[in-house]
Amino acid sequence: MGAGQPVVSLLPPDHRKARFYVPEAEVGRLQVGQPVSLGCDGCGGPIPARISRIAPQAEYTPPVIYSNSQRSKLVFQVEALPDPADALKLHPGQPLDVRPVAGTSR
Questions:
Q1: Three-state secondary structure string covering 25-92
Q2: pLDDT digits (tens, 9 = 90+) for 37-94
Q3: How far is residue 16's CA from residue 87's CA, in Å, rounded to a whole number?
Q4: Cα 29–64–97 angle (5° rounding)?
Q5: How many other CB atoms are found less than 10 A from the CB of residue 11?
Q6: What distance separates the 2 farthest-apart alpha carbons in the chain?
Q7: Nearest one of 30, 25, 23, 74 to 52, comparing CA atoms
Q8: Which residues pair with 78 in a beta bridge?
Q9: Of 80, 77, 75, 21, residue with least CA distance to 47
Q10: How far does the chain reach from its first CA to its final CA, in angstroms?
Protein backbone atom coordinates (compact mmCIF):
# COMPACT_ATOMS: atom_id res chain seq x y z
CA MET A 1 0.00 0.00 0.00
CA GLY A 2 1.34 3.39 -0.93
CA ALA A 3 1.29 6.64 1.01
CA GLY A 4 -2.02 8.48 0.95
CA GLN A 5 -4.09 5.39 0.16
CA PRO A 6 -7.00 4.51 2.45
CA VAL A 7 -6.35 1.78 4.98
CA VAL A 8 -10.02 1.02 5.55
CA SER A 9 -13.25 2.04 3.91
CA LEU A 10 -16.42 2.27 6.02
CA LEU A 11 -19.97 2.12 4.79
CA PRO A 12 -22.46 3.27 7.45
CA PRO A 13 -25.44 0.92 7.94
CA ASP A 14 -27.92 3.57 6.77
CA HIS A 15 -26.18 3.62 3.38
CA ARG A 16 -26.22 -0.14 2.80
CA LYS A 17 -28.71 -1.34 0.21
CA ALA A 18 -29.52 -4.45 -1.73
CA ARG A 19 -29.18 -3.99 -5.48
CA PHE A 20 -30.77 -6.64 -7.67
CA TYR A 21 -32.12 -7.10 -11.18
CA VAL A 22 -35.66 -8.01 -12.13
CA PRO A 23 -36.74 -9.33 -15.55
CA GLU A 24 -38.91 -7.05 -17.67
CA ALA A 25 -41.87 -9.42 -17.30
CA GLU A 26 -41.82 -9.01 -13.48
CA VAL A 27 -40.86 -5.35 -12.93
CA GLY A 28 -44.48 -4.20 -13.36
CA ARG A 29 -45.43 -6.11 -10.18
CA LEU A 30 -43.05 -4.05 -8.04
CA GLN A 31 -43.49 -0.60 -6.57
CA VAL A 32 -41.38 1.75 -4.48
CA GLY A 33 -42.12 1.18 -0.79
CA GLN A 34 -43.03 -2.47 -1.30
CA PRO A 35 -41.51 -4.77 1.35
CA VAL A 36 -39.07 -7.50 0.33
CA SER A 37 -37.18 -10.12 2.29
CA LEU A 38 -33.38 -10.38 2.01
CA GLY A 39 -31.53 -13.56 2.82
CA CYS A 40 -27.88 -14.55 2.80
CA ASP A 41 -25.59 -17.29 4.06
CA GLY A 42 -24.80 -16.61 7.68
CA CYS A 43 -27.35 -13.83 8.14
CA GLY A 44 -29.66 -15.84 10.36
CA GLY A 45 -33.31 -15.19 9.55
CA PRO A 46 -34.75 -13.06 6.76
CA ILE A 47 -33.87 -9.36 6.74
CA PRO A 48 -36.83 -7.08 6.01
CA ALA A 49 -36.25 -4.25 3.51
CA ARG A 50 -38.31 -1.91 1.34
CA ILE A 51 -37.86 -1.14 -2.33
CA SER A 52 -36.41 2.37 -2.56
CA ARG A 53 -35.75 2.63 -6.30
CA ILE A 54 -36.81 0.99 -9.54
CA ALA A 55 -34.87 2.01 -12.63
CA PRO A 56 -37.07 3.83 -15.16
CA GLN A 57 -35.43 1.99 -18.03
CA ALA A 58 -33.59 -1.25 -18.63
CA GLU A 59 -30.14 -1.31 -17.05
CA TYR A 60 -28.95 -4.07 -19.35
CA THR A 61 -29.85 -4.82 -22.88
CA PRO A 62 -28.52 -7.87 -24.69
CA PRO A 63 -25.94 -7.38 -27.42
CA VAL A 64 -28.61 -7.71 -30.08
CA ILE A 65 -30.92 -5.24 -31.73
CA TYR A 66 -33.99 -4.65 -29.57
CA SER A 67 -37.18 -6.26 -30.80
CA ASN A 68 -40.37 -7.52 -29.16
CA SER A 69 -39.01 -11.07 -29.33
CA GLN A 70 -35.97 -10.01 -27.24
CA ARG A 71 -37.98 -8.08 -24.63
CA SER A 72 -37.84 -10.96 -22.12
CA LYS A 73 -34.05 -10.48 -21.89
CA LEU A 74 -34.32 -6.93 -20.53
CA VAL A 75 -33.75 -6.47 -16.81
CA PHE A 76 -34.31 -3.50 -14.52
CA GLN A 77 -32.16 -2.56 -11.55
CA VAL A 78 -34.04 -2.37 -8.24
CA GLU A 79 -32.70 -1.20 -4.87
CA ALA A 80 -34.06 -2.03 -1.41
CA LEU A 81 -33.09 -0.52 1.93
CA PRO A 82 -33.04 -2.58 5.14
CA ASP A 83 -33.34 -0.97 8.58
CA PRO A 84 -29.88 0.27 9.66
CA ALA A 85 -29.81 -2.23 12.56
CA ASP A 86 -30.45 -5.12 10.15
CA ALA A 87 -28.04 -3.67 7.59
CA LEU A 88 -25.17 -4.50 9.95
CA LYS A 89 -25.70 -8.16 8.97
CA LEU A 90 -24.94 -7.35 5.32
CA HIS A 91 -21.55 -6.89 3.71
CA PRO A 92 -20.95 -4.89 0.51
CA GLY A 93 -20.85 -7.20 -2.49
CA GLN A 94 -22.37 -10.11 -0.60
CA PRO A 95 -24.72 -12.35 -2.66
CA LEU A 96 -28.33 -12.12 -1.48
CA ASP A 97 -31.61 -13.87 -2.09
CA VAL A 98 -34.44 -11.36 -2.58
CA ARG A 99 -38.10 -12.31 -2.32
CA PRO A 100 -41.25 -10.21 -2.28
CA VAL A 101 -43.16 -10.36 0.97
CA ALA A 102 -46.36 -12.41 0.49
CA GLY A 103 -49.56 -10.45 0.05
CA THR A 104 -47.92 -7.17 -0.98
CA SER A 105 -47.90 -7.32 -4.78
CA ARG A 106 -50.27 -5.05 -6.66
A1: HHHCCCCCCCEEEEECCCCCCCEEEEEEEECCCCCECCCCCCCHHHHHHCEEEEEEEECHHHHCCCCC
A2: 999 888 889 999 999 999 999 866 545 444 555 556 788 889 999 998 898 888 888 8
A3: 6
A4: 35
A5: 12
A6: 54
A7: 30
A8: 20, 54
A9: 80
A10: 51
